[in-house]
Amino acid sequence: MTLAPGLRAQLLIVVEESDTAQKIGSGDVPVLATPRLLAIAEMATLKAVRPHLAPGETTVGTRAELAHLAASPVGTHVEITTELTEVDGRRLVFDFEARDKRTVIGRGTIERVLVDRAKFIDRATR
User: Fold this and answer.
1) Residue 42 appears among annotated catalytic residues
2) Among 20, 45, 68, 76, which one carries the catalytic annotation?
3) Could you read off the pLDDT of 47-71 as tens digits, one per residue?
4) Which of 34, 57, 76, 82 could bridge 53 with an S-S bond, Cβ 3.0-4.6 Å?
């Protein structure tokens, strides 16, 4: 396992109807929903660390802070960049930023914890 600050990942999405606040129920406008932006940022954190995890390990989200700064209508290209900024035992802290071609549309911090996948699922399903 080689988890260390500096691990980065990027995801590029095109906002689709299924990503909108109208569709997922977090609002009634046809723009990228805040919960969807957070989910995509979390996907980017997984992408950053997945190649560095031991077999059977994964991470689970424990905390998130997000500022959604600008609206992104359907068809907008959004790039999410995340960086692992802190490793404290099993606790991992990531910063992320989301941009369209004009501006920063969101930024924040995500904390995740390193877990054994099988043990985690066993405890969660008891």
Assistant:
1) yes
2) 68
3) 999 999 999 999 999 999 999 999 9
4) 57
